[in-house]
């Protein structure tokens, strides 16, 4: 286990200890000194800082990498969100190997994707979104090194109350309980040459591959879902330099024939045909 991975695990344990002490102090009326309650939180920050320094900061790659060209992971008409073409880190943090990650939502035709509403409806079924159930494709010939299924596809968080709940409550709980709860159902492929592709928020029960399987470029490996830390059905895609997001650094990518679409940009991904042989 890498130094940074150990640091992440230790930090989560310390944060859970902090929450436990707060609950004990409030609910059990324990007379705990404030310094003892806050100490685990301070230690959690210190552990992550030291682990990143010793293990290599996540925003300083081991070797500078040019963008890796791969096939698109979807087919049809989609639009980009949180794109590395607009900023890096694209999702605001380097953690979990997502410096150059991108989110894509299906846009088959104007008006088919439900819009964000300030108050009502509070949430929508995942089936109301055109991305839900869309095929997700292998971006290259690869080996499956991680295939996690079983998490539910929850309701959307496409209202202001729903978004606040995700940011203030659900997201924090998922962060404390591990990267797998953030990614939801996910697949990691080993593309070779120290490059790994991660697909997150997949539909429960849709994975067609298992760990150890070999896949060909363009092969369907799962379907788009709304599991994990997700506001609506979409695909989160990233390249990284290790199979474990907690220990990985992001690698820039470019999609063959498309490039890297900017935020809000709509693109058409052609139907892929797996290579024969």
Automatic annotation (TrEMBL):
GO terms for molecular function: hydrolase activity. Its EC number is 3.4.-.-. PANTHER family: MUREIN HYDROLASE ACTIVATOR ENVC (PTHR21666:SF270), PEPTIDASE-RELATED (PTHR21666). It comes from Streptomyces dubilierae. The chain crosses the membrane at residues 34-55. Residues 171-241 form the M23ase beta-sheet core domain. It holds the Pfam family Peptidase_M23. It is an enzyme of class 3 (hydrolase). Keywords: Hydrolase, Membrane, Transmembrane, Transmembrane helix. The keyword Membrane applies. This is M23 family metallopeptidase. It comes from the Bacteria.
